Every structure is written in C-alpha cells, then in structure tokens.
Amino acid sequence: MQDDITHDNFDFRGFSVENRHETELRRDEEERSAKKKARAKAGKSGKADKPGKPGKVKSAKAKGGKDKAGKGGDVSVALPDKSADRAASDKRPLLFTPMQLRGLTIRNRIWLPPMDMYSAYARDGKPTPFHYQHYVSRALGGFGLIIVEATAVCPEGRISPKDVGLWSDDQIEAWRWIVQGVKDAGAAVAVQLNHAGRKGSTGCFGVGHDGESVPFDEGGWQTVAPSPNAYGSYAAPRELGVDEIHAIVGQFAAAAGRAVAAGFQAVEIHAAHGYLISQFLDPLVNERTDEYGGDLEGRMRFLIEIVDAVRSVIPEDMPLLVRISATDWAAGGWDLGQTVMVSRALKEHGVDLVDVSTGGIVPDVTIPVGPNYQVPFASQVRAHAAVPTTAVGLITKPKQAERILRDGAADAVEIGRAALRDPAWPMRAAHKLGVAPSDVPYPDQYIRGAY
Fold first, then answer.
1. 275 classed as catalytic
2. Among 275, 373, 442, 451, the one annotated catalytic
3. Which of 36, 131, 193, 393 is buried most, with the most CB atoms less than 10 Å from its CB?
C-alpha cells in the first residue's frame, strides 16, 4: 500500500528528521570563522601601510554613481526597492534571497528550467523512478524552483512517444510522489504544460529517428498545427479546425486541474521553442485568415484563451507562468516587440512571470549562441512589459548569474545544462559567492560534505 511519502514499498522519508549533525556543523562554522579571522589579521598586518590600494568592495558612486539593480524603470517586480543595495550591505547574494509569487514563497532565485528527459519508458505519459531521482536530487542540491519538463496535455501533444503527460487522471498518482519528494527536499515545484503541434511525433533515444518524424507503424501519429506547413523535414501537419482549437484549450485547463491534484505549486504554459502555441504566434508559421490568424491580436488569441482557461481552474494564490521565445531569429518573423506586447497582455490576464527564451520556431536560422545571449531579451521584457522575468541560456557561473540579478535584467535565473552535470550547482554557487554553509539549505544528511 502506498501513501504520499512511499512508493513501491520504498520509504523516501528522512528529509525533516532531527538534525543529528548540529554539533558538527557548529564546530565546522567555528573553525571556518577562526581561519577567516586569522587570514584577515594577516592581511591587515601585511597590507595596511600600502597606499593607493582600493578595497575589494566598491560603492555604487565609485562605479559612476549608478545603481544598476534599479535599471528597468518603474517595473513592478518581486525585487523590493533598492534591494541590491541592501543585499550588498549585508553581503547576501541576490541569488539566495527568497522570491514571492502570489501565495508561493520560493527559497531562492536559482531555478531548474524544464528540460525533456524522454523517459516515460512505457510510452503512457507516466513519469518513472528516473524522474524522481532527477528532480528530487536537484531539490536536495538547493534549487529554489523545479520546473518539470514539457508535460503533454494530450497524447498527440507529445514531442516524442516517451514524453510525460497529464492528459489522464491515471497519471496523477504517478506524479504525486515525485512532487511530494521535491517539496520534502525544500524546493517549490511547477509543471510545464505543452502541446507540441507540428514538432510532435519526433524521435529520441530508445525510439530512434532522432531529428525525424516517427513513422505511424513505429508509434508515431499525425501532427497538427495552425497551418499545414511542416517544420523542416518533419512530416507535414494537418491544419486545426476552430472546434479542435477550442478542444485543445480545454485540454490545457484539464491538465492544469490534474496538476493541482498532483500537488504542483505552480503551472507554466509552454508558448516557446516552436511548439503549438508559438506556432500560432509566429507570422512565418501561422497563415490562417480566421480569428486565430492575421494580426497579432488574432495570432495571440489561442495563448490568451489558454491562459484564461488555466487561470480559471487553478487556485487564486497559485502562480501562473508562461515560457515564450522572444524571437525566432528570422527576418519578418516573431520578434522582441511582439513579445513585449504579448507579455503585457499576459500580465493583464493573470500571468505572474514570463520565462524568456528564444528560437526553436523556424529552422535554418543563425543564432548567436554564447554566455548570456538571451539575457537582454529577459531584461527588455521585464522593463517594457512591467512583469517579472527569468533569464536562461548558457548561464553557468555563479558570479555571472548574480550579476544578471544585480543588473536588474531578470528576477531569477535558470540553470539548465550545467545542472545536468552538477545537481548541487546552487550549493557550489553559495560557496563561490561567500555564503556560509549555515545559510545554505543543506539536507541534514549532507552537512558533513558542505563546502
């Protein structure tokens, strides 16, 4: 028999047990403090008489008198006024300050973005013990918010046959123990709801046909899109009828209701990377002439209807996020200006944060990939749509991530591929940024391994 904290007769309790290592932690802290004082004393005796040496901590005036953390005008965001100045004064990195979205308090601003694992091995949309291991280990590693991978709202909305889903009540229980495990480890947990549209029915490891459409006789299916044009060499989709569009809106709402039942604390709608919603948004893909095409108001109608439907079925105090590609990197296509306009509308319809990414909508474009290459888009959306944002994309170093927040470019950062190789990235970041182990959410069992 299973309950909320057991699975298949294996008990995963132990996250909140009495701290058996308090004495050891206190001793380690005392040793670190003594060493730090000794180094400081040695440094003063050796450097106090050297003229012209500036200290390591510079005031804002010393850098030109500008408070970069305030950049972005009168944006209504989660960061309090002059929070960067206060954080600098008490030397607490912004990465490790909590963030409030509606009724949800997130312990820090280092988030795990949704990344497809293609590990629903039975092809039934149900997550597996791998997903428990994957997500709970990052929660134990100190991430503030875990955003679960693209979760299909219907079988034909999957990216691959091995995608997870929430299209059936039968899938709720398979998610519940994972969600509870993430919470028990101290992180908040959200789910990203998705329909792949014309980019569905594609191959992955264990299926084959990588970068191609999966044939029907090997588990593939007929894809759909706003217009019957294919993505690159993928199989051509079928154009959706208006009644089918309305049905998909309902599928997003139903999946959101199941997410609430599974215990998720926030919902993210996937409107990025060339999946169905972003196919409707992009004028290079959407060739419709009805109310779901044409000008921006028509092309964004599908997304707004989904947002309204999801907002109506989740609790009032539950945050609603939307991930969006700020550009398709193609001339005449989706761009930052349209993204800002849509983000303003999303805020009016109850969206609490925009998760800003780019690309994936049209093939064969040149993307200037490099560290922070998507950060300016998050910054512009934050400033001009007056909505909190996250930044993502080749953010790999703690000081790099901290600078993004201090410059006011985003309200949180998402650590993706770096988190795949380092589940405890936040703990290493805390060490690099000088945060004491006692101020880092080490599980009791891991305190002896603190930096």
1. yes
2. 275
3. 193
